[in-house]
Amino acid sequence: MLALAIFVVTLILVIWQPKGLGIGWSALGGALVALMAGVVHWSDLGVVWDIVWDATFTFVALIIISLILDEAGFFTWAALHVARWGNGRGHLLFPLIVLLGAVMAAFFANDGAALLLTPIVVAILLRLNFSPPAALAFIIATGFVADTTSLPLVISNLVNIVSANYFEIGFDRYAVVMVPVNLASLAATLMVLWIAFGRRIPPRYSLSELDPPRSAIRDLLVFRAAFPLLALLLLAYFITAPLGVPISLVTGTAALLLMAIAGRWWQLGRGAVVPVTAALRGAPWQIVLFSIGMYLVVYGLGNAGLTGYGARALEWLAHQGEFTATIGTGFLSALVASVMNNMPSTLIGALAIDQAQVPAATRELMIYANVIGNDLGPKFTPIGSLATLLWLHVLAGKGYRIGWGQYMKIGLLITPPVLLATLVALALWLPLLPAGY
What we know:
The chain is mainly alpha-helical. The chain has helices spanning 2-16, 23-37, 42-71, 74-85, 90-127, 132-148, 158-166, 171-197, 220-240, 247-263, 276-282, 285-303, 306-318, 322-340, 342-355, 360-376, 386-397, 404-429.
């Protein structure tokens, strides 16, 4: 009960953020209380650090890359091209925006896709004079697809990185499993969003209201470097995966290289357009503190026996067959994530799977189902992920206020079918592959 009380109070402070208290400080405070109360031990600190450090610094590096490219106009350029590809037809623009969100989520993580693309889409919708109901359809689609298609690569979601590192899944193996599954999730997302919002989309819009894509580019050197840098980064992930090189080292190297280009370090900053220091300040450094603190608090829940209950539930699901175990694990993880936030839920799921006595094939299915549940489950409620809370805050700043009740009504309507379709795709696809775990 003490471990649960510490967790609940810490989570409330993280979500509430009284007087602007950073999420990292709240989590560290909870961790300190847990240490003082004996819920966790100092030796657990090393265990938790070993779990979270690579994932956390990879995430920070990705966001730095995303912020620099955003300042250079890269994402606005892409969005304007997509808007022109729509050729003035609203029913074509809608799936194109969803596809753009999916690509951004794959390479720049779900947080980058939701938080960077949303303001750009809002600005374009204002130029096109879309009605509020039509604008809401595009806004919800942008925020929703950022999570539902954050499955394909290890770097696509912090949840993926933590899980892959915990179970020592290589970048290549993860991609082989999850890229096809992500395509199924994308197809289901498009279908569900179209059924829910298709009637709100205007049939036509004027291309004359759009700026030329080239006008969005603010730093031509950074823009030109973006495509080869991203291609080399993706290639480096696959090459270094069998060598055991930390993902954060690869991503951090790319971030430093892009910072050097943006800051014109060889010219001592002369001619720089993108404010590199601003990008560094805007990086989610609080996530570093949050990962250590919150995961330590969650580890205390595991010490108190919560993961034991989870392990028994997974063992029961395993006895029902691989298909049921996959679906059950995914929905169980999603429900836990929607109530407790997907960051701590990921670790609880991983600890439970690690403890459960299940066959190797079922175990691998559960590992990926836990990832899917924690990637998609946060869409049930606003507190399911920090990215969603930040996304709602960004929208409020743009004049689009979505209440928690309205959000949950939409989330509970469109999330379950996409989650189910994605888990079914996993259950059908993974058994066809050679054993890899």
